[in-house]
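Can you please make up a protein's amino acid sequence together with its fold in token form to help me picture the idea?
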Amino acid sequence: MSKRKISASGRLRTMMKCICSGEHLRVDEIIPSSESLATRDYSASGYSSRAGEADSKVDTSNIEEAESSLRESGFLNYEEARALLGRLEYQKGNVEAALHVFEGIDIAAVTSKMKISMSRKSEPPRRLSQSDASPPMSMHAVSLLLEAIFLKAKSLQALGRFEEAAQSCKVILDTVESALPEGLPEHYIADCKLQETLNKAVELLPELWKLSWAPQEIILSYRRALLYHWNLDVETKAKIEKEFAIYLLYSGCDATPPNLRSQTEGSFVPRNNMEEAVLLLLILLRKFVLRNIEWDPSILDHLSFALSVAGELTVLAHQVEELPTGIMERREQCSTLAMCYYGQGENMVALNLLRNLLNHRENHDCVFELLLASKICGESPDCLEEGIGYTRKVLSQFKGKCQQMVSVANCLLGISLSALSREIASDSQRISRESEALEALETAKRMTRGTNPNILFHLSLENAEQRKLNVALYYAKQLMKLEAGSSVKGWILLARILSAQKRYVDAVNIINAALDETGKWDQGELLRTKAKLQIAQGQLKNAIETYTYLLAVLQVQSKSFGVQKKRLKSKVNNNRTLEMETWHDLADVYTSLSQWRDAEVCLLKSKAISPHSASRWHSTGLLYKAKGLHKEALKSFEKALDVDPNHVPSLISTAIVLRDINEQSLPVVRSFLTDALRLDRTNPSAWYNLGLLYKDGTGGLALEAAECFEAAALLQESAPVEPFR
């Protein structure tokens, strides 16, 4: 056996010299080929300038491959010889020479033979008979030629011919899939080199299509890698799953739903990029939990992004909660869960998580958590003081240090102080808080040099609410310039400020410009503001047309999103609220035009959306009042206050009706009006009706009445068509 091995090795070395020099091989076992050996044209074309080195630097693995082929078939044919020589040149870095050699292989001819050989190997032994012809190729030859096709793809890639490289790589997968439609059976490949080549080809193909800018081919190649049974190891498959999920999330290409060959009844089939990416990432997370793969923190990062965009923050929270202990630090886990619950509108759950974290003595430098807790507190009237305490703690820690962090803290402080000022009854304390709020926001603006749009928005909003309209207009314009008109709320704030200055034409022009710059699905609030501006100018018919168009847009939007993809829960709720309020606005317009039937139809449409709505009961009360049915109107206003005791329009309307039908109830009327002013001190209607009450009363209240009328006149002069907030 030893002598035979030495003899075979000697023949191989002689043969390799012959391949490089282009001479014929004359040994006892002559290679049967009409063109002699593989590379006669290769040496003739001048690519074998380093042929002399090949004799001394022949790779041992190449000789072992050739020995295997010789032992199995007794000869090394034309294509196999080219495959060996091409590999040699590729290993030496001669990419162009290697490609020239590989191009001499008749791919169509060898793939048909490889398919037959691979297919026969997969058949059970009992199905073969003595009469069956032997396979045209040994598995070693199949392995050698598949590797040659793979190296050809790598050579084309190195030369920048990416599409050709992808097509070459695709030949490998097509060949194997055609030969074995049901996938590679367990322990089918005894040759580790063949499995290694398949693994590399499966991984390489999507990357080549990426370089070729072929989005659909990329998606198909990834799905092919995951759906066909390639006998990939767990780590390789996990890597492909992760790369595919990343491509689906960030490529910007819409993938068509996968067409599965077979699937069990009731199984989940993703309908779009987001669902497919989430499915892949959840599979990866499951593999980690089962300890099949090592932990990769980026999996959770991508899953967080995907579920956040899909509006499934509750699902993300559950995934974080189910992670094994020790994967995430307690602080990171608490803050992640708090953000999830906050995003889903469960503010108190999020705040309690942060409180537990911040009250722990071992947790220091929790700046992000303090700011998040402050933001949540700023949205709850009962927690405003607590939120102010959190921001002041951040400011004390970062005094003179991180300007960015201090600017964020000052912005949140200004927002919280502004919200607190609206809850204070005392005029002196309210004015003090408003002044502190402006100071904090201006400090944040100076620190960011006016480059933070959120700070500019709140600075403009706060000045507008304090009726400093010129300053508010300046900051609103700065905001528009900074954002280049990309924010709907910036357009609306600018229009409201202009309407407060009674510049209705300019405000309408701003809204029209915003409509031109905004997508149809984001035009709802803009159209409603436009209708309010038209009403303020007495253009009621135009307002009705605008409201009708808005309702049509919302209807189409709800249907189209229903079949396309799931939206954020908050977006759905906002659209339903907008639709309901639009019906109420339209009912009020019809009421003012004495079109009772049309107003009633609008209110029935609103009732179908939400039967328990304070604004619907208020519009119903206005309709009854316009008809002269004061008692029915009063009942409707009372029902509105049952739904929302702080509904300011209903408080004012209740006071008006009570004053009209019962002069003996003046103290009750005054209580409703003072409650309305406690909730909204800038409401001119409340001040005006309180003035009327004092004027009609006894006891020398003429001075109080005059002060109320003066306040109402001043506020009416600067009242926007709809509240700034």
Q: What stands out?
A: Confidence is low (pLDDT under 50) at residues 1-9, 15-58, 70-74, 562-566. The CA atoms of residues 476 and 494 lie 6 Å apart.
